[in-house]
Design goal:
Blueprint: E1 2-11, E2 14-24, E3 29-34, H1 40-48, E4 55-59, E5 66-68, H2 80-85, H3 89-103, H4 107-119, H5 125-135, H6 152-165, E6 170-174, H7 182-193, E7 198-202, H8 206-212, E8 215-220, E9 223-228, H9 231-266, H10 273-285, E10 313-322, E11 325-335, E12 340-344, H11 351-359, E13 366-371, E14 377-380, H12 383-387, H13 394-401, H14 407-415, H15 433-446, E15 451-455, H16 463-475, E16 479-483, H17 487-493, E17 496-501, E18 504-508, H18 512-538, H19 542-587, H20 598-637
Parallel strand pairs: 3-7, 3-8, 5-6, 6-7, 12-16, 12-17, 14-15, 15-16
Antiparallel strand pairs: 1-2, 1-4, 8-9, 10-11, 10-13, 17-18
């Protein structure tokens, strides 16, 4: 299916691949792994013809149909389902041809095209698209919303569905689980295992790779190493290869030392000169073996606050939601030091809402949230990545928290998160999502929390960083509550699960395989309920349907500016929190209370008061806008 011969690739003056060779046969499911920047995405671009090799060649069989997952959305005015169906290029061509034939009243051509549509199962495409969207956690209502309504992560899901919709012989997926929850990840696994073509996918999710991959292609030291089996098999085989490589390296180094010693001792002696020259030629011909390096660039831990309350946090019969809409009700939980909980539940059931209740981003609508005297929360969520100051360096982000800390200690600390040398002191404008996520985790670790609240912390992290995060969480002495689609992280860091479903939070008495079975049963029940709803809507008259669609369109127009205002308020809230944190850092410095700093202290206190007032106003605006959106969405559903 795919053949690479003596291929070399340079990018930006750096050699990514050097004289590599590999053959991937039809029907293989190949996971592509390797360090960030090693050339994984560049390989996809080579296959798609967007890049050209500097040497060698990459060949595919003739008429090979390639499907790949776009990273951007071109037409945001299309509905979700139409965007997904656009992935079926052959169908769209036939539909355009049919429209021309109908306009020309060419019945012969129309009959021919209808036959072609039947041959590609074109009349069931809508059903297939709905199944894909449903599997990726889109509701029936979502399918007819414009793409512009969805956030970036959900647009990536739409692009994934579009790639799966496209009939293909070769499917290329770049980080397909990055924006998926656990439910959608499990569904995607099942779909890919039934895919009949050749699959190449880049992933940092080891359990996903274990479940899907038949082979692993590893980018390492500008070479491609091809392994048979899952990720776990790859790890064992690579460890054995590296051990053998290291043994050969040490043996070769010993031989080199012997040759050099011989040459040094006998080169000047006439009787031994010929032998010395012979040894030198042996040294020149010798193919050098590299030392085996398997050290991760990441080594860090989460220091725990020295003071600890027990319990750290109590939720007493709380209800939480947005505006008048309650998402979770009558939740009673107690978090103690050492608590290690993973949150499970269908998409949209309220897992992130519960995390926000813990951190008090969503104050209870009813009930009581009681904090321990020494509660110190470390909170990670994806929106915090956007709240980082792009003009500040990683070191500056830490320095703002501890103005008196030495530059060297901050440099040493950031090194554990992979920020070395100038990278620790340059601005983060060009940082990738993975680099921002590492910085956000570093900021949390620096503050020594005793309760970690992690909402999808592994998004954008590579395998090495995920491993380092798992190790750090295992040794953390405080409490951990985590939402994640990374099952390896869950299996190795939490001791119990809570199930969030139908507005309730209960203990889940089972492991992750048991949850997968539970989820399949739950989805079957949901599908049956959806079918009943669709059946009822089919009984609507034509005029009623038109009126419902008109009202829905009007609602979307009214919601659109509200969403923009909501995003604006969220950015302002993040900015003001950052400002207040900086002010607290200034006020923590004893020097500011000296007589010579009176004017400066007055300015800082005034700025603090103004920022708090502005924050209250923006938060009120956010709540009001959220409530308006919820009301309009509820009206649309009615």
């Amino acid at each position: 299916m795919l053949n690479i011969e003596a291929l070399s690739l340079l990018r930006g003056g750096n050699t990514l691949l050097d004289q590599v060779e590999v053959t991937i046969h039809t029907g293989r499911r190949v996971a592509i792994v390797g360090a960030n920047g090693s050339g994984k995405t560049s390989l996809f671009k080579l296959i798609l013809g967007e890049l050209q090799a500097d040497e060698g060649e990459l060949t595919l069989p003739g008429q090979c149909r390639i499907a790949h997952m776009q990273q951007e959305v071109d037409n945001i005015d299309r509905t979700a389902i139409e965007h997904v169906i656009d992935g079926h290029k052959e169908l769209r061509k036939l539909e355009a041809a049919l429209a021309q034939a109908e306009a020309a009243d060419d019945h012969g051509k129309m009959a021919q095209i209808h036959g072609q549509l039947d041959a590609i199962d074109g009349y069931n495409v809508n059903v297939s698209a709905e199944q894909l969207l449903h599997g990726l956690s889109f509701s029936q209502h979502d399918m007819h919303r414009p793409v512009s309504d969805f956030s970036g992560g959900w647009r990536i899901r739409l692009n994934l569905a579009q790639a799966l919709m496209c009939p293909s012989d070769l499917l290329l997926l770049d980080e397909p689980t990055n924006h998926l929850d656990l439910d959608a990840t499990l569904w995607l696994e099942r779909w890919l295992k039934q895919y009949q073509g050749t699959l190449l996918f880049i992933s940092h999710d080891r359990d996903f790779i274990d479940s899907v991959a038949s082979h692993v292609l590893h980018f390492e030291n500008k070479k491609l190493n091809y392994y048979t089996g899952s990720y776990s098999d790859f790890e064992k085989q690579r460890a054995e290869r590296l051990a053998q490589q290291q043994a050969n390296f040490e043996k070769q180094q010993q031989r080199i030392s012997e040759i050099e010693d011989f040459v040094r001792r006998f080169r000047a002696k006439a009787t031994k000169a010929k032998q010395a020259q012979s040894r030198l030629k042996e040294l020149e011909r010798m193919e050098k073996i590299a030392a085996a390096h398997i050290d991760s660039p990441f080594h860090f831990e989460f220091p725990c606050s020295e003071k600890m309350s027990d319990p750290l946090l109590n939720l007493k019969k709380i209800s939480v939601g947005y505006g008048d809409k309650t998402i979770l009700s009558d939740v009673t939980l107690s978090i103690h030091p050492g608590t290690r909980v993973g949150l499970l539940g269908p998409n949209g059931a309220g897992k992130s809402t519960l995390i926000k209740a813990f951190v008090n981003d969503l104050p209870p609508l009813a009930g009581e949230r009681v904090c321990g005297e020494h509660l110190a929360i470390g909170y990670f969520a994806q929106h915090q990545l956007e709240a980082l100051d792009p003009k500040a360096s990683p070191a500056t982000h830490i320095q703002r928290l501890s103005p008196k800390e030495s530059e060297q200690s901050i440099r040493n600390f950031l090194g554990g998160f992979g920020f070395h040398g100038d990278e620790a002191f340059g601005d983060i404008t060009t940082f990738s999502g993975g680099e921002k996520a590492r910085l956000a985790l570093a900021i949390i670790a620096w503050q020594k929390p005793n309760l970690l609240l992690l909402d999808e912390p592994t998004n954008h992290l590579d395998l090495e960083m995920r491993h380092a995060l798992t190790m750090a969480l295992q040794s953390f002495e405080g409490a951990v509550i985590v939402v994640s689609h990374d099952r390896h992280l869950l299996k190795n860091t939490v001791e119990e699960f809570l199930l969030v479903v139908d507005g309730k939070v209960d203990v889940f008495d089972g492991d992750l395989p048991a949850y997968e079975k539970w989820l399949l049963d739950y989805q079957k029940q949901s599908d049956q309920s959806t079918e009943k709803t669709v059946s009822n809507s089919d009984n609507e008259s034509s005029d009623d349907k038109k009126e419902r669609k008109r009202l829905a369109a009007e609602n979307r127009k009214r919601i659109s500016p509200l969403r923009k205002q909501l995003e604006k308020d969220e950015k302002s809230i993040d900015r003001l929190h950052q400002v207040l944190e900086e002010i607290e850092g200034l006020l923590a410095d004893p020097d500011i209370y000296s007589d010579s700093q009176k004017d400066r202290l007055k300015q800082v206190l005034q700025q603090q008061a103004e920022s708090k007032t502005e924050l209250e106003e923006v938060e009120l605006s956010w709540c009001d806008v959220s409530e308006q959106i919820e009301t309009l969405q509820a009206e649309e559903l009615e």
